[in-house]
Automatic annotation (TrEMBL):
InterPro entries documented for this protein: Mur-like_cat_sf, Mur_ligase_C, Mur_ligase_C_dom_sf, Mur_ligase_cen, Mur_ligase_N, MurCDEF_CellWall_CoF430Synth, MurE/MurF_N, UDP-N-AcMur_synth
E.C. number(s) listed in UniProt: 6.3.2.10
Gene3D superfamilies: Mur ligase, C-terminal domain, Mur-like, catalytic domain, MurE/MurF, N-terminal domain
Lineage: Bacteria, Pseudomonadati, Pseudomonadota, Alphaproteobacteria, Rhodobacterales
Protein family per UniProt: Belongs to the MurCDEF family. MurF subfamily.
Subcellular location: Cytoplasm
PANTHER family cross-referenced by the UniProt entry: UDP-N-ACETYLMURAMOYL-TRIPEPTIDE--D-ALANYL-D-ALANINE LIGASE
Principal localisation: cytoplasm
Record-level Gene Ontology MF annotations: UDP-N-acetylmuramoyl-tripeptide-D-alanyl-D-alanine ligase activity
Pfam families (alphabetical): Mur_ligase, Mur_ligase_C, Mur_ligase_M
Record keyword Ligase present: yes
Ranges of residues in domain Mur ligase N-terminal catalytic: 23-92
Protein name: UDP-N-acetylmuramoyl-tripeptide--D-alanyl-D-alanine ligase
Amino acid sequence: MSLWTAQEAAAATGGQAITDWRVDGISIDTRSLQPGDLFVALTAARDGHDFVAQALEKGAGAALVSRIPEGVAADAPLLVVEDVQAGLEALGRAGRARTQARVVAVTGSVGKTSTKEMLAAMLAPQGRTHAAVASFNNHWGVPLTLARMPADTEFAVIEVGMNHPGEIAPLALQARPHVAMVTTVAAVHLEAFEDVAGIAREKAAILEGLEPGGVAVLNADLDESPVLGEVAVAKGCETRWFGRSASDYALYAVDLDGDVTRASYRFEGREISAEIQSLGAHFAMNAIGALAAVTALGADLDLALAGLAGWSPVKGRGARFTVDVPDGTVTVLDDAYNANPTSVTAALTVLAATKGEGRRIAFLGDMGELGDEAATLHAQLAAFPAMDNIDTVHCIGPLMAALHAALPEAKRGLRVETSAEAVAALNGEIRGGDVVLAKGSLYMQMARVVDAIREIGQGNAPS
């Protein structure tokens, strides 16, 4: 069965379908486009209309456009709308409206994507499950996820993010979740808000999209938990609190052991043990919230636990792998996708707890969007308790200069401006037995460090 026909898509968007076509998927990037996809010509860094001809040549089933692009035949399979972004949003709303799926939406300063993947793993054994790919959580990512949702979906997991005030509520209203979860609230995107309480209010705006009878799943352990609770009370929705201080959905013990995290929960009158295939107390916390969310959807708890047991972090978000180097094996903790004070301290805790015969080494890149407190927040990492068990910290980026200055001299490693400079200096910094963490905001491109360590294992010089 096709995802969209020309007639269905035209009715959803109010646009004009040229020719009679059917599509099986939706793409916004010709590099990943599959034959039979609807290519959406969004305007971002470049105008997507410039790539419509290429998309059609690669086998796109049709293209969503606001005009017939140059080099495209007048009878090409198109859906012409007034505005492509608005057209995508309309298609997403129609995709949501035509399904009977039970929907959970997740937001938070840290852990959105990992928790989204956990939720999908918990629900997949229980029915046809659709989830956002990667971090598709913004003004185009949410409607794209909804528009991609097959009509026979039984469970859907939607990730909702933000950079500035006022972004979350419109996305939540598109997703119309039955359950909305806030993983945590932290000093992320602080330059766009007066304080962390303002961030909490924006995160709580996800409740604006709840369906009647919907459930809020909220973190009980935050300084800003009362702010989240006030919004939930004003919304009049059922609230499930999770965390160490929660009564119904409580995390009461975490054991970091080798490559796994063992968590003990008290859950709706039951005592439950769960094993997570990665180190991190933060994973244990996100898991109890996710379990509260999936049972609020009406899913089976034991099947959800079985799904959790098979989950592991994805590349760039805490994934672990080993590399054979000439004098042994290096363990790499790939957490390079993004960074803020909360996620960096969580990653340092994992690094400190990871067993290895050699040194524990951190490559830390700048944490972005922290406003006037940026230098202070970077320097404060030096006093974090896990630093006692970390041998060397390489500081990458202008903001990380503050951490480098605050570290004890014995722990100071490289002090460079870019990840490219770190890669150039990598030879000799890593040896067999070491455990290495790479962490930084996305713009710092810390994945280069991860890739360079892989190359050492392949016998190549880092490049």
